[in-house]
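Posting this for the archive.
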Amino acid sequence: MRYIEAFYNRWRPHTHNDGLPPATAMANFTTQNQQQRAAA
């Protein structure tokens, strides 16, 4: 069970994130958020 939550769910594509894995979606969000703060 720990493997599923720690590894598989982080990299499994999710429809809520436009087919991106949660780790990738979070990295994209963080990058966009940092760029917006730098531009402000």
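DSSP finds two helices and no strands in the chain. The mean pLDDT is 82.
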